[in-house]
Structure formats: structure tokens, C-alpha cells
Specification:
Elements lengths: L4 E7 L3 H9 L6 E4 L3 H9 L3 H6 E3 L2 H11 L6 E2 L2 H12 L15 H16 L4 H9 L3 H23 L2 E2 L1 H8 L12 E7 L4 H12 L3 E7 L10 H9 L3 E3 L22 E4 L5 H12 L9 E5 L2 H15 L3 E3 L1 E4 L4 H13 L6 H6 L8 H14 L5 H11 L6 H13 L3 E2 L1 H15 L11 H24 L4 E2 H14 L1 E4 L7 E5 L9 E4 L19 H9 L7 H17 L4 E4 L4 E2 L2 E2 L4 H9 L25 H11 L13 H7 L8 H9 L1 H9 L5 H4 L8 H4 L8 H19 L5 H28 L7 E2 L2 E7 L4 E7 L2 E4 L3 E7 L21 H13 L7 E7 L5 E6 L7 E3 L4 E6 L3 H21 L16 H4 L7 H4 L4
Parallel strand pairs: 1-7, 1-8, 2-3, 2-6, 4-5, 6-7, 9-18, 10-16, 10-17, 11-16, 17-18, 25-26, 27-29
Antiparallel strand pairs: 12-15, 13-14, 19-20, 21-24, 22-23, 24-25, 26-27, 28-29
Helix pairs in contact: 4-9, 5-6, 5-8, 5-20, 7-8, 9-10, 12-13, 14-21, 17-18, 18-19, 19-20, 27-28, 27-33, 27-34, 31-32, 33-34
The structure holds iron/sulfur cluster.
């Protein structure tokens, strides 16, 4: 017979401490329970076979139910979290439009927050009456806020009661009303409280003592002096039980104190920042593989499992290391779930066109021609009105097996698409639909991992329907309304991703405790992730928490919750029994990072403040050969170590194609010749074929030729100039606008307005400068022959107007862009300018312009981005600079015309030879930096084949 007594044990949250504690329990039958289910599961893993025979781990609510039954009190059914959430959704509908919560009332996420908050309040033994009483003590909006919370809670609880459901804490509350009596079912109870402050569980544990049991409550604690695990002091005070601390010291006892001498030697410590989150996972796993049998005794501990799990899983599978990552992910990240939702939404549309979007999902697996057929038929039928869906069903029946999903879905729509049913009925019919359409790619092989994943997704898809059905009962819901509900519910639903290997390296979330691991790598130890920043609870802000405290109810405020981050870190480092490696990414989302202050606190507590970091920065993308642990990695490293030969640059070799590319007898432009000297590929693609990268096609550059098209200088006045530019702009805009997103449209519209205004304004200024506007030689397309050794090249240049004086000849043209004036520097001779492409384009053009003896050629150019420039060829050094009055930059190229002709001819012929080869051969170099054709030519100096093969 057990002795009735209650004891509060303060234990460091480590597996060895709990194991020793459980081993020291007196003989007899024991129940281990507590409010934290993962902790209970970890405790169960620590029990040996003998202990398992006499010790049972039971979740708190279930155990409380068993006790009630033993005392002859019927234990009601506990509501699921989804049902509580559904009850709050219904409660939110009662809010008037002026209520403080009205703006959030239609969000399911708000109901989820309310459900969590209400559970916390009830665990603290705070209910509707207590909230109403506290509201009376408050004023202003907080009063209305608290009353609103209370009335929503009252509504939700009443709904649950109607469906005979209660909260888990209600069972504890019921127990407290039972009079003391002996419960000889077992000899003692261990309540694992950890750091949770579950006030009802505390009172319930004391009640257990009155029922004649030996009750041992275990809280996280290190010592009476330690600043860690503050909640244990409050638990002791509330229960009136002194804390019995463990006598077995821990190395991290001095965490967050000034002391730097650990009471016992720490595990082997290391600090290994890595380049980014993926590099962290890879290096942690490589180090884990140094162990001859990597497995469950090792753990990667991360701040956010959802973020790190995909990286860790993919790295582990590459290295061939077993990994045990068990986590929850949003339901709609599952292919089947997304397919089901998009399919239902498409079936709810007035016409079947959206089914083509469903057919594009990779889950469906249609090939391009099958998808094309589906797209065509849905477009054709879209305007047939009511008969469209029926005709599509007939078409689907004639299709190959790949379209079985479509056939099933259309038959299902014909049966239920216009019905109003209860949620339970909808759940049953959806189950049928999902069952019919889910094996769109055939039945998976037994053991196929996607099958297990999809089974879990199907459970998660049905779960909210069942939960809401419990609350909404016999309410009828139309198919259209159901589809809206499903998007809301499934967006908030999570699905568990099972562990890939039971005995693999564990992936744990920071703060996990009681895991029996010897080697630990703590990843992602960055400021703002560990610790996360203090933030007030959105539903229970500090003002309300304080008012509750003033009335004798206890809840943690945001400062106390933020302080608990230290406890989370302590539990994290406490996991390590043999070695602890602290890591963080040097770059996160392309930004440099700040290491968590907790890293330094840990090194200090371990007496190793001077520990040097080993940094796996970008230069460690691959390990040196002696650090390769897996065959796959060794193969890659060896492959990289092989001598490389420069990749062959792709060029056109088919004679027929070369013929098409060659200029032949057609005239060529200075731009083509100038570009060909730099890069044959770009000259052909951009200058001859006029192919532009998508980003450029949709940019302002599309409007660059407008001044040329409207023959700007020949228009009689400013008004006409503006009108002509506007009209030309509108025509071009109508052609490109359908291909732009809304945001791009807005940006381009604003920028193009400035462009038109700028052109018109500068043209107006030019007319105060040039007397010749409208009187010069109009439309002079210049064709100049350039004599080569074996060919004569016909140069073609389109200039808008020419003005001649005794000393100068000014030509006006427009170009897409010219560099900033500062970039032009040239001295006569073989040196190149900073922008050789545009520079030689200008030079070739100027050198060939028909000017008379002693006349200086001047080229005036209107550009898209750099305003207007006047290029003057004059070896007598005319003044150059900004003509602010006329908003024009003057650039003097100090060279004689004859010397310029000599060099320009040489370069033009060089360019022509390249064009005439017809090979379109890429010539990578520094000019690639400004080029957007890199992905086409595959020779870009930075990311082309050459770069990726390590030869440049
Ligand atoms: S990226 Fe370089 S090599 Fe490729 S087309 Fe552009 S300039 Fe030529």
C-alpha cells in the first residue's frame, strides 16, 4: 500500500538525470504522466524492459479520465483542437460589425489563435466568470477586449457542451470536486511538469495525494541559485512543496551567470559557423559520419524544423546517412492535397478552363501533348454555356488512362456539384472523390514512400471536415461554400512527415529535452532565432495579463516568456553528453548574420571563452579528399580534381544556317560591326536577328526608337512633337501591355511618361540652339562603302537630320543607350575606350559621315536613359562639358578625321569578317557583365560552361 505524500523534485532536464530518478523509484506500479506529450514519449524511451512492466506513461487528460471513471464519475469526451477551433469560428460569426474583433472575425487563423489562448486560460483555471470579473476592473478598449474574449469563450464552450465535449483541463477540474478516498490501482504517480506552469495540474497533483497516492512532481531546475528555470520556484510556492534538487551537477550550471568555471568537465565543445543553412547541415552530417555507425545517438538541433528538415534530409540522402526527421509541414505542401484543392476549385468554376491549370500540376503527370489537348478542349468548350461540362465529360471518357482522374472528377461534379449537404455527407463524398482521383499516375508500388505520405495527407484533408461537422451538425452547405471553407481550413492544416529512419541521426527542435543523445550539433544559432525576440501575445496582451494577475490569477507576461528562451537554450545544450558543436550560417537570405549571444554565454559557462572557431565558409563548398566520408562525395571531389580542358565553345557549323546568318550583300550598321568585334554571338542574336531577352523586351528599351520613328526634329512645333510621340507610344504600349504584370505596367507607365516629357522638352531646347530645325536635310539614310582587301562593306546608318555650316556638319540620330559621358576617354592610337562597343559604333559612324574638307563632324544623339549627347570629332580641342542651358553633354573626341577613319575602318572590317563567317561564335570577356544573353550563349564569363567547369 502506497504512502500518501507529495514531493517536488527539481531535476536538470537531461536523459541521465531522469533515468536515475526513475530507477530510484520504489517498487510497485507507477504511472508517469504530464501535460507535455513529447516529453512523456521521451521518458518512455528511457525505460528498460523491467521498468516498462511496472511503469506506464499516460497523457494527462487520459489519466485524469481513468481516475474519474475509477471514482464512479463519467469522464466526458475531450474535444480535439480542431473542434475547439470550429467552435470559435462559429462564435466569431456572432460578433457585430462594430466589435473590436470584427475585422479579424472572418479569418480562420484568428480562431486558431483564440483556441490556443482559451486552452492556456483554462489550464490556469481562468474561465468566463473570471474574465468578466477582471473586465469590470478595467476601462477603455481593454475592458471591451476582455469582455469580447469572455463572450467568445462562453459561446465556444456552450457549443462544445451541446456536443458533449469538454476540454482536457475540465477533467482535472472535475476531479477536484471528488472527496478524498483511497485509489489502490497503483502505488505512485510521477507528474513531469518540466517548465510548464499548469496551475490546474498542480492542484490536481495535490488532490492525488489526498487520494492516498505517492505523488512525485518533476520540474526542470538546476539549483536554488541558478537563474535558469524560474517557473520551478513559482510552482513550489503555489503548491507549498519545497524543491528537492538533484545532487548530480551539470557542466552548464553557470549558464547566464558571471561564473566561468563549470562544476564538472563539459563535453567536447566546438564552434563551426558554415556558409549557409545547407552548408551547416552538410558539415554537421559529415562530422557525424566520422562515427563508424552514425545513428540515433547523434542529433542535429535546429531552431525551426520546417526550415531545416528539407535541407537535412536531402544532404543525408546524398551522403547515405540515415536520418530521423519527424516534423509537421503545411498540408498544402503535399502534392495530393494541392491537387485536390485545385481540382475542387476548378469544378466550382462556371466553365471548365481552370481544369487545364489542374492538368499542369506535376502530381497529375500529363505530358506536353496531353496537356495541350486538355487546354484546347477546355478553351473550345468554355463558351458553350451549360453544355460545356457535359461535353467535356464525353470527351474525357474517350481519353487514355491518363485522364481517368478527369473522368471521375466530372462524374462526381455531375452528381454533387449542385447539391447542398451536411459536412459529414460532404466528407464521405470527398473521400470517394479523393480515392478515385489520387492514383492519377497508376497505383504506387508497395513500399513507395509517396503512398504513406499521401495516406497522411488524406487523413489531414478529412480532419477539419470531421471537426467542423461536430460543431456545425446538420447545417447544409452548398458545394460553392464548401470550396471556400476548404481553402480556409486546408491552408491552416498541418500534416506530419514521418521519420525516414527509426535509427538515424535525429533532427530535433531547439528546446527538446530528455533525448538520449551523445553528440549534438546545434544549427542556426543566430540572433532573433535563438533567442526569438520578445513579443506580446496578440490575444492576451500584457495589459490583460497584468489585470488578471492583480486579481490573483497567474499567467506569464511577454517578458517572462522571452526569458524562457534561456531555458530553451539550456535544454538544447544539455542534450549533449559527449560532444557539442555550435553552428550558425554566415549568410541568411543573402544577408550577413549575427551569431546568437547565447553562444558566447555557453562558451563562458564551459570555461572556454577563447575557443577558436573553425569556419566552413564559401571556400569549403566541398571538403578536401581526406574529409570525404561518403562514396558519393568522394566521387564528386575526385571528379573535380581531374585536369580540366577548356570547354568547346558552341558555334554554328551548319552551312545552311551560316548562310542565313551572314550579311551577304546587305548593308550593315555600325552597331553590328562594332558588336561583332566584341562578341560574334551577340552581334547575330541582338543586332541581326533582333532577339531580346524577355526582361529587355518588356522594358523601357521597347520605346527607344520612338524619336526616330516620329522623325522628331522634322515636326513643326512642340505640340505636334508631343502628340506624335504620344500616339507612337500608345501603339507600342498596346502591343506590349498584355504581356506585363500589373506591377510592371504601373512602373513602366510612370517611367515612360517621364521619357516622353524628357524627349519633347529636350527637343524644344534643341530648337533654341539649332536654327536648322525643320530646315535641314531630312531622312538621310547614309550608305557608305568601306573598302576591304577582298570585299567592299556597305555601311548603313539612319540619321534624322543634317545641319551644315562652313565649319561643321551636325547629324542627329537616336540610340537606345550611351554610357555616361565620364566613361568616354580616347586617345588616337590602338588603345580602347571603356565601352568599346558603343565607342566604336560612334566612331565608325562619325568617320564615315559625308563631311567636306575642313568641316568637323558632329553627331547629336538622343538616348533613352542618358539624355542627349553631342559627339564632336576635333583635334583642335574644342571645349567640352555639360551644356546645361540645352541639357546636352558635349564630348570632344580629340582626333583627326583621317586617323579616326583609319582605325574605324580597321575595326569595321574586323567586325565584318566575324559576321561574314556565319559562325555566331561567342567571345566571352569583361563585356559579358553588361550582356543578358549569357544563358543563351553558354559562354558567359561568370556563369557559362567555362565558368562552371572551373577554367576561368
Ligand atoms: S555573355 Fe558574353 S559571350 Fe555570351 S553573348 Fe554576351 S557578350 Fe557574348
Amino acid at each position: 500500500m502506497a504512502t500518501a505524500r507529495g514531493t517536488l523534485f527539481g531535476l536538470p532536464p537531461t536523459a541521465p538525470h531522469l533515468r536515475d530518478f526513475l530507477a530510484a523509484l520504489p517498487g510497485g506500479r507507477w504511472v508517469i504522466t504530464g501535460p507535455d506529450d513529447p516529453r512523456l514519449k521521451s521518458a518512455r524511451d528511457l525505460l528498460d524492459e523491467d521498468q516498462l512492466e511496472r511503469m506506464e506513461t499516460v497523457p494527462l487528460g487520459e489519466f485524469a479520465g481513468r481516475l474519474l471513471t475509477a471514482c464512479g464519475v463519467p469522464a466526458g469526451r475531450i474535444a480535439t483542437k480542431g473542434q475547439l477551433c470550429a467552435a470559435f469560428v462559429d462564435a466569431q460569426r456572432t460578433l457585430g460589425p462594430d466589435h473590436l474583433f470584427a475585422a479579424s472575425a472572418h479569418h480562420v487563423g484568428f480562431a486558431v489563435e483564440l483556441a490556443d489562448c482559451w486552452s492556456d486560460l483554462r489550464q490556469a483555471d481562468i474561465g468566463v466568470d473570471q474574465l468578466m470579473a477582471v473586465a469590470e476592473t478595467m476601462s477603455g478598449p481593454w475592458r471591451e477586449w476582455t469582455q469580447g474574449l469572455a463572450s467568445l469563450g462562453a459561446h465556444a464552450e456552450a457549443l462544445l457542451k451541446d456536443q458533449s465535449r469538454l476540454l482536457g483541463s475540465d477533467r482535472l477540474r472535475q476531479s477536484l470536486t471528488i472527496l478524498p478516498q483511497p485509489l489502490p490501482m497503483f502505488d505512485g504517480v510521477v507528474v513531469l511538469m518540466g517548465t510548464s506552469e499548469h496551475l490546474l495540474a498542480e492542484r490536481w497533483a495535490k488532490w492525488l495525494v489526498t487520494m492516498g497516492l505517492d505523488v512525485r512532481v518533476v520540474v526542470d531546475a538546476v539549483s536554488a541559485e541558478s537563474p535558469l528555470f524560474e517557473p520551478h520556484r513559482r510552482v513550489s510556492e503555489r503548491m507549498g512543496w519545497p524543491v528537492v534538487y538533484s545532487e548530480k551537477p551539470v557542466w552548464w550550471a553557470n549558464l547566464f551567470t558571471e561564473k566561468s568555471e563549470p562544476p564538472v568537465p563539459p563535453p567536447a565543445l566546438a564552434l563551426h559557423p558554415a556558409f549557409d543553412a545547407l552548408a551547416e547541415c552538410e558539415w554537421a552530417l559529415r562530422e557525424a559520419m566520422a562515427d563508424p555507425a552514425p545513428g540515433r545517438h547523434q542529433a542535429l538541433v535546429v531552431p525551426d524544423v520546417k526550415e531545416y528538415a528539407p535541407l537535412a534530409i536531402v544532404s543525408a540522402s546524398r551522403f547515405g546517412v540515415p536520418i530521423r526527421a519527424h516534423y509537421s509541414a503545411p498540408l498544402l505542401t503535399n502534392g495530393l492535397a494541392r491537387f485536390c484543392l485545385e481540382l475542387l476549385e476548378a469544378l466550382n468554376e462556371p466553365d471548365p478552363r481552370s481544369l487545364a491549370r489542374v492538368g499542369q500540376l506535376s502530381y497529375v503527370g500529363l505530358d506536353a501533348s496531353e496537356w495541350g489537348e486538355l487546354d484546347n478542349i477546355t478553351r473550345q468548350l468554355a463558351f458553350e454555356g451549360n453544355g460545356a461540362w457535359g461535353d467535356l465529360a464525353v470527351w474525357a471518357r474517350d481519353q487514355s488512362e491518363r485522364m481517368v482522374w478527369l473522368q471521375c472528377a466530372l462524374e462526381w461534379r455531375a452528381l454533387y456539384g449542385h447539391q447542398s449537404l451536411t459536412l459529414i455527407q460532404w466528407r464521405d463524398h470527398l473521400r470517394t472523390l479523393i480515392g478515385d482521383v489520387m492514383h492519377v499516375n497508376g497505383t504506387p508500388d508497395p513500399g513507395d514512400p509517396t503512398e504513406g505520405r499521401d495516406d497522411r495527407a488524406i487523413t489531414a484533408l478529412q480532419r477539419p471536415l470531421a471537426d467542423y461537422a461536430t460543431i456545425f451538425g446538420a447545417q447544409l452547405v452548398s458545394f460553392a461554400q464548401l470550396v471556400i471553407y476548404l481553402r480556409q481550413w486546408w491552408t491552416n492544416e498541418m500534416v506530419t512527415v514521418p521519420a525516414q529512419s527509426e535509427n538515424g541521426v535525429q533532427l530535433l527542435v531547439a528546446g527538446s529535452s530528455l533525448k538520449d543523445v551523445r553528440q549534438v550539433w546545434v544549427l542556426g544559432a543566430l540572433e532573433s532565432k535563438i533567442p526569438v525576440r520578445r513579443r506580446e501575445n496578440t490575444i492576451l496582451p500584457d495589459a490583460i495579463v497584468q489585470a488578471l494577475r492583480d486579481q490573483g490569477h497567474w499567467l506569464p507576461n511577454s517578458t517572462e516568456t522571452a526569458l524562457a528562451e534561456r531555458d530553451r537554450w539550456a535544454r538544447t545544450v544539455a542534450l549533449a553528453q559527449d560532444s557539442l558543436t555550435l553552428m550558425y550560417p554566415l549568410v541568411d537570405d543573402d544577408r550577413e548574420t549575427i551569431e546568437s549571444g547565447y553562444i558566447r554565454a555557453t562558451l563562458r559557462a564551459a570555461g572556454q571563452e577563447d575557443l577558436a572557431a573553425k569556419v566552413y565558409d564559401r571556400s569549403w563548398t566541398l571538403p578536401p579528399p581526406d574529409m570525404c566520408r561518403s562514396r558519393a562525395e568522394r566521387d564528386i571531389v575526385e571528379a573535380w580534381a581531374q585536369p580540366t580542358r577548356p570547354p568547346e565553345v558552341a558555334e554554328v557549323i551548319q552551312v545552311g544556317v551560316q548562310e542565313q546568318i551572314r550579311p551577304g550583300d546587305q548593308p550593315v550598321t555600325p552597331a553590328q560591326l562594332s558588336m561583332a568585334r566584341l562578341c560574334g554571338f551577340r552581334a547575330v542574336v541582338e543586332q541581326r536577328l533582333r532577339l531580346y531577352p524577355a526582361s529587355e523586351r518588356l522594358s523601357l528599351m521597347r520605346f527607344a526608337s520612338l524619336p526616330m520613328n516620329v522623325r522628331l526634329p522634322q515636326l513643326p512645333d512642340g505640340k505636334e512633337a508631343r502628340a506624335a510621340l504620344r500616339q507612337a507610344y500608345n501603339e507600342r504600349w498596346n502591343a506590349i501591355a498584355p504581356f506585363l504584370s500589373e506591377t510592371e505596367r504601373r512602373v513602366i507607365e510612370v517611367a515612360s511618361k517621364k521619357l516622353l516629357t524628357g524627349w519633347a522638352h529636350r527637343e524644344h531646347l534643341a530648337r533654341t540652339y539649332h536654327e536648322w530645325r525643320g530646315k535641314g536635310e531630312a531622312n538621310p539614310v547614309i550608305l557608305t562603302p568601306i573598302e576591304g582587301d577582298d570585299r567592299t562593306v556597305r555601311l548603313q546608318a539612319d540619321v534624322l537630320e543634317v545641319e551644315r555650316t562652313n565649319h561643321t556638319v551636325t547629324f542627329f540620330t537616336s540610340m537606345v543607350s550611351l554610357p555616361d559621358a565620364k566613361k568616354w576617354e580616347w586617345t588616337p592610337g590602338p588603345s580602347e575606350a571603356q565601352d568599346p562597343y558603343r565607342f566604336w559604333e560612334i566612331m565608325i559612324l562619325m568617320s564615315q559621315l559625308p563631311v567636306g574638307e575642313g568641316q568637323v563632324p558632329i553627331l547629336e544623339v538622343e538616348t533613352v536613359l542618358n539624355g542627349r549627347q553631342r559627339h564632336i570629332l576635333n583635334d583642335r580641342g574644342l571645349r567640352a562639358g555639360m551644356d546645361t542651358k540645352h541639357q546636352m553633354v558635349e564630348i570632344v573626341h580629340a582626333a583627326t578625321l583621317s586617323l579616326t577613319r583609319q582605325y574605324a575602318r580597321h575595326r569595321a572590317l574586323e567586325g565584318f569578317r566575324i559576321l561574314d563567317s556565319g559562325t555566331a561564335r561567342p567571345q566571352p570577356g569583361p563585356h559579358c557583365e553588361q550582356c543578358r544573353y549569357g544563358e543563351l550563349c553558354r559562354a558567359h564569363a561568370e556563369f557559362g560552361d567555362a565558368a562552371t567547369e572551373g577554367t576561368t
